[in-house]
Amino acid sequence: MLPRILERLLDEEQFLSRFGIRSVSRIHATQTHLGRIPGIGEALMEYVPGESNSPLFGGNSNWRGPIWLPTNYSLVQALEKYHRFLGPGFQVPVACKDGQRLNLGEIATLIAERLVNLYRPPNGAPPPALVREGPLHDDVHWRDLLSFHEYFHGETGEGLGASHQTGWTGLLANLVMRRYRKDITPWSGLDRGTEAAPIDEIA
C-alpha cells in the first residue's frame, strides 16, 4: 500500500507543493463532486489553498488545501521510521523527480527541504511565508524576529491564520537541525554553564 500512497503524495498535481504536503489533493480544485454517500447525501470536496472561504471553524481555519506543520512533521518522522525498518533497498518511483526511484529516507529529506523553503529567502527576497509581514518587516531592530504562522498557502507558501504558532511551526528549526547538524548546541533545559547532551542523543 505504501508505494501506492506515495505515488499520489509525491505528485505536484495532487498533494506535493513546493512548500510541503497539502492537506487536500489539488485535483479537487476541479474534481469537487464525490457522489452520493448513504446517510449523508451529495458529497463535495473542495481544494482551497489559502484562507477559508467558509465561516466554518470561525472563518480563518482551513483544512482543505493549505500546508500544516504538525501533519507534515509527523509524515517526515513516519517515513524516517519506515526507512530504518525497510532499509535503503526499499525504493519507489517519485513523480516530482520524473519517476526517479528514491528510498524513504531520501523522500523524507525531500519533504523536509520543501518545508524549510517556507522560511528560506529566495535570492535576497522575503521568505515565502513572510511576504506580507507588517511594518516591522524592514525595521532593523525587528526584521529578524520571524512570525511563525498557523498554516501556509498551498501554492505560494504565504503564512496564514494566527502568526504566533511557535508550538508547531517552530518544528522547522528541528528539521533544519536534524538535516545539517553543524555547530548547533541544542537547548537541553539545563542551567547555563551545564554541558548539554550531544545532538545524536537528543534527535
Task: Provide a short characterization of the protein structure.
With 203 residues, the protein is an alpha+beta fold. Helices cover 28% and strands 12% of the residues.
Give an account of the 3D structure.
- Helix 2 packs antiparallel against helix 3.
- Strand 1 and strand 2 form a beta hairpin.
- The C terminus is likely disordered.
- It is globular and about 55 Å long.
- The chain is of the alpha+beta class and 203 residues long.
Extract low-pLDDT stretches.
196-203
Count every beta strand, where a strand is a DSSP E run of 2 or more residues: 8
How far from one another are the termini? 29 Å
**Inertia-based shape:** globular
What is the helix/strand order?
HEEEEHEEHEEHHH
Report the β-strand fraction as a percent range: 5-15%
Which descriptors apply to this entry?
203 residues, alpha+beta, two-stranded antiparallel ribbon, two-stranded antiparallel sheet, 8 strands, globular, disordered C terminus
Q: What's the arrangement of secondary structure elements?
A:
Layout: H1 2-9, E1 16-17, E2 20-21, E3 33-37, E4 41-44, H2 69-86, E5 91-94, E6 100-103, H3 104-116, E7 151-152, E8 159-160, H4 166-169, H5 171-180, H6 199-202
Antiparallel strand pairs: 1-2, 3-4, 5-6, 7-8
Helix pairs in contact: 2-3, 3-5
